[in-house]
Amino acid sequence: MILVSFIDFLLVVVPVLIAVAYLTLAERKVMSLFQRRKGPNLVGPMGILQPFADALKLLVKEIVIPVQANKKMFIVAPIITLCFSLLGWVFIPLREDVLVSDINVSILFTLLVSALGVYGIVIAGWSSNSKYSLLGAIRSAAQMISYEVSLGLIIIATVIVAGSLNYVEIIMNQEIYWNILSCFPLLVMFYISAVAETNRPPFDLPEAEAELVAGYSTEYSGIGFAMFYMGEYANIILISCITVILYLGGWWGFILFNQFSFVVKLSFFLIAFVWVRVAFPRFRYDQLMRLGWLVFLPVGTGIVLFNSGIIYGLNI
Amino acid sequence: MTLSLVIYTAGYCVTNNHRTDLNKISAYECGYSPNSHESNQYNANFIIICLLFLLIDLEILFLVPFLYTVDSIDTTTWNIFIYCMCTIIGGIIFELLTSSFGKLGKIIKQNK
Lengths: 316, 112
Known about the structure:
The structure holds two protein chains of two kinds.
Chain A: H1 2-34, H2 50-60, H3 71-87, H4 106-128, H5 131-162, H6 167-173, H7 184-197, H8 209-212, H9 223-247, H10 261-279, H11 285-313
Helix pairs in contact in A: 1-2, 1-9, 1-10, 3-4, 3-9, 4-5, 5-7, 5-11, 7-9, 7-11, 9-10
Chain B: H1 2-14, H2 22-25, H3 45-63, H4 75-98, H5 101-110
């Protein structure tokens, strides 16, 4: 029984890791196409083997543990970051019965896992015992938890329409009309909160190179750095999957691509992550906090009241 | 968890060099050793943000069971829901009007 669930978990996690590797390549190539140049195209045909070359390089690099760091916590931090990023993947359904664990409160668990992701960052920054790491980690963590609140409210406002916290139920509810028709402003707010939650540009001041070298992962090298990187991209793909499930109807097709609809919609959101990185300048830190607390929190609360008011008033 | 441990130990076993240079294992301080232990200080506003997150996230968690009763809302249920939401919103308004989010940016600018 444990072996079966472990194999289920591996069947989800190994393709996710390959997807993460190719997302790094896709990001570099798409960013370079936006800038009218070609991305990496030397390693394989059209650069297809580039992620494996990067992974191999990071694998054989020396693991430098600085002399002032707390050794145990320093080693644990990237491990738990990657662990929590991969843990959120067991709830994502590709079809009604193609998911590792079908529980009735999937959304709650997903919020839980993304809230636990802050632990890895804080432990990394604190255990490095270096000014830059600590500052970057604390700013990063404060940004992530601010947008946790906004994500929670927007998810509640969306799920009121569906009536259940189960991902499969929410997708079954969107068989005829996707949630984007009734919740389009929520999709916009959710996507912006998702970009801010995963510390991606234009919200990446805690990791901005000019300011803080590399934020919480300054002192990491080799496989530790690779695990932070993989965890960040796994988070990006996870939150894009959740966007597709909540707003775009999961596996229900539209006109074309009925068999691959989930993947096509998912890739649209992933390219949108890269697009947003290319197009917009960076937010200053107080503008970022203002957006999270003074804009998304009141608007999210208002939309929760609005949606539940409509459902109560029209006796749906 | 085991997968992450496996990846990390693979990386550790594959590397051939182990801490051979004094310059590599010192802190990232552009060449010199840090003179003071300033690394343990941070702004108090971040603690305020964390406390705010804690309280508001708990309030949001209390809103979650409401989703299961959305198909059969009575007038009494609605009244209680509005009462709870007014409490939450009152708390949020009070907190946001008297906290120092605007000052966080100015403090960060002064630190440079």
